[in-house]
Every structure is written in C-alpha cells, then in structure tokens.
Design goal:
Blueprint (H helix, E strand, L loop, with lengths): L6 E3 L4 H10 L3 E4 L5 H6 L7 E4 L9 E5 L10 E5 L4 H6 L1 H6 L1 H8 L4 H6 L2 H7 L6 H7 L3 E6 L2 E6 H4 E3 L2 E2 L6 E8 L5 E7 L9 E10 L3 E10 L6 E2 L1 H7 L6 H8 L16 H19 L5
Parallel strand pairs: 1-3, 2-3
Antiparallel strand pairs: 4-5, 5-10, 6-7, 6-10, 8-9, 11-12, 12-13, 13-14
The chain binds flavin-adenine dinucleotide.
Protein name: Xanthine dehydrogenase family protein subunit M
Pfam families: CO_deh_flav_C, FAD_binding_5
Organism: Myceligenerans pegani
Length: about 300
C-alpha cells in the first residue's frame, strides 16, 4: 500500500530536529525505516510530518566514554549513538570484546539488509517485545540518553520500556544515545529460538555471568525477549545462580524459574506455555555458554 501523504524534513542537528518535533501536530521520527516504513505503508500510522534523522552525524558512532557520563557505578562505559546501524556495531572490535552480549544479539537481527539500514536506537525506541536488543540492554544495565526541549535526561533501561511499543521517549523527544557499562571478565551467551531463519525471536534469552575464581557464578544478569509486553529481567534465575558451580544440572535447576513473573503471548508461533518452556531451555543454554560451557 502507499502511505498517506506527509511532509518530510531532514534536519542536520538534534536541536533542529527537536524544533521540528515541537512545532508539528503529529510527527514521526525516521531512523533506519525498517519498522516505520512498513507501518506507514500499512497505514497503521499516518503522521503529518516525517523527521528523517539520517543527516545528523552526531547521532552516529561508537565512543569509549571511560568513567564519564552518568552510567551507574561510574566504571568504564561505551556510548553508542542512536543512529548507529547494526552493521557498524557488528563490525566493531570494541563491541565484540567489551559488549559481547550485544554483539551476539545484533548478529541475530534479521538479515544483512536489515542490519545495514536498521539502527540500535530505532530498535529500542520502537520497543517491539520481540526485538532482539531490548532484553540485552536490560541485562547489560544500559542507560538511554533522551534529548528534549528542556535538555537531556538519562533513563535506566529498567525504566525505559513501559509497555507494548511504548517507551519513556516523549512525542517531542529523541533517543540520542545508549550508554553501556563495561564489565571486564564477564562471559556472555545469547540464545534465540526462531521457526525460520532471519525472523524475530519466538523467545530469546541473553545472559551475562561473572565467575568468582573462574569456577563459581558470583553474579548473573538475564534478559528475556517476547515473554511479556516489554523485555524482562529473570530476577529469580539471577538470584538462584549466585554461588552455583555451572554444571548443566545446577544451571538447569536455577533456570527452571526463568518464566516466573512473565506473561508471554500466545500466537501462531507458539502458545504461552510453550514460550514458558522455551525460556527455561534457552536460559540454561545461554547461562552455560556465558560460563564457558556451551551445549
Ligand atoms: C524483514 C525484517 C526482519 C526483521 N528481523 C528482526 C529481528 O530478527 N530482530 C529484531 O530485533 N528486529 C528485526 N527487525 C526490525 C529491525 O530491527 C528494525 O530495524 C528496528 O526494529 C527499527 O530500527 P530502525 O532504525 O529501522 O527504526 P525505524 O523503523 O526508522 O523507527 C522505528 C520506530 O522508532 C522511532 N524512532 C526511531 N529512532 C528514534 C529515535 N532516535 N528517537 C525516538 N524515536 C525513534 C520511529 O519513530 C518509529 O516509531 C526486522 C525488520 C524487518 C523488516
């Protein structure tokens, strides 16, 4: 279908984009267009104005911000501009080494064409519960930098995803960057279950694990995808893993709680009970991989 008519603007700065958003009655921001364009073509949304962020260079790139920024804990951190496409993230040695879980998840997004156009910021702002990156941002305890008419604010990932396709970004605001704390020495595992290749996950699990003395799990962070209207942390599993030696039996027992507190959907890809089962299996595999024992 052809989208309804809209005005189109291509600002070259964040300030100019924010001015355009403030003046418009009903504007939509365009990043990589991989989700927005299908929505417009299906006429699920009919904005008066589309504000294309593609010419705002400051929104693109991967920066080591050291202990700066507002990242919780004040340790080292990497900031990724919202308009950075997946393929640049995948090609980055820094991301592969320091944010391995993000690297694993981005490698699983769609196909090379989607990864060429689609952006990390677009994915997180879209907040599709089946998107690969939201649960990873939660597990890595990322922070979202949001710019608006009264300046910038920083929102933890835990407060960013508010409901189905709904985030903390207001109509007159932009997601400008995502800050990821770096956790040296943590292992990472990502498990995504799909019915056919290059699909959104039926369920996915991202795990980061720290081993004390190389043998016992001292801390774990687990993110769940498509187990509710927003990405979720599997807190019960995280607590159960503390102090566990990562054998398949012990990790499997801890991961039996992976679906606790979730509300997965039922659809053509699987019903809610099937997803609950998948969450336990994928969590076990992701944690074992993160602990250096892939199965
Ligand atoms: C065939 C196909 C397969 C796919 N497979 C997967 C998959 O396996 N896993 C997966 O996770 N995703 C998948 N996707 C979705 C893909 O990841 C999209 O790129 C992503 O969801 C949106 O990113 P985008 O940059 O294209 O954003 P756009 O489509 O341009 O924007 C998406 C939404 O976010 C808003 N937005 C964008 N940027 C900002 C910003 N900086 N500030 C505020 N609002 C903003 C837009 O207004 C729009 O509402 C697939 C898409 C297609 C078409």
């Amino acid at each position: 279908m052809i989208p309804t008519a809209f005005d189109y603007a291509r600002p070259t700065s964040v300030d100019e984009a924010l001015r355009l958003l403030a003046q418009a009655d009903d504007a939509k921001v365009l990043a990589g267009g991989q989700s927005l364009l299908p929505v417009l073509r299906m006429r699920l949304n009919a904005p008066d104005l589309v504000v294309d962020l593609g010419r705002i260079d400051s929104l693109r790139g991967i920066r080591d911000i050291g202990g700066g920024g507002a990242v919780a804990g004040g340790g080292g951190a990497i900031e990724i501009g919202a308009m950075t496409p997946y393929h640049e993230i995948l090609a980055s040695d820094e991301i592969r080494q320091e944010l391995t879980l993000l690297h694993h998840a981005v490698a699983e997004v769609g196909d090379p064409q989607i990864r060429h156009r689609g952006t990390l910021g677009g994915s997180l702002a879209h907040a599709d519960p089946a998107g690969d990156c939201g649960a990873v941002a939660l597990a890595l305890e990322a922070e979202m930098v949001i710019a608006g008419p009264s300046g910038e604010r920083v929102v933890p990932a835990a407060d960013f995803f508010q409901d189905l396709f709904t985030t903390a970004v207001g109509d007159d605001e932009l997601l400008v960057a995502i800050r990821f704390p770096v956790h040296p020495g943590w292992g990472a595992g990502y498990q995504k279950f799909v019915r056919t290749a290059q699909q959104w996950p039926v369920v996915a699990v991202g795990a980061c694990v720290h081993l004390a003395d190389g043998k016992t799990i001292s801390e774990a962070r687990i993110g769940l995808t498509n187990m509710g209207p927003t990405p979720l942390r599997a807190r019960a599993v995280e607590e159960a893993l503390a102090g566990v030696t990562p054998t398949p039996e012990a990790v499997g027992a801890a991961c039996a709680a992976a679906a606790d507190g979730t509300s997965p959907p039922s659809d053509l890809n699987g019903d809610a009970d099937y997803r609950r089962h998948l969450a336990t299996v994928l969590a076990r595999r992701a944690v074992l991989a993160a602990a250096g024992h892939p199965q």
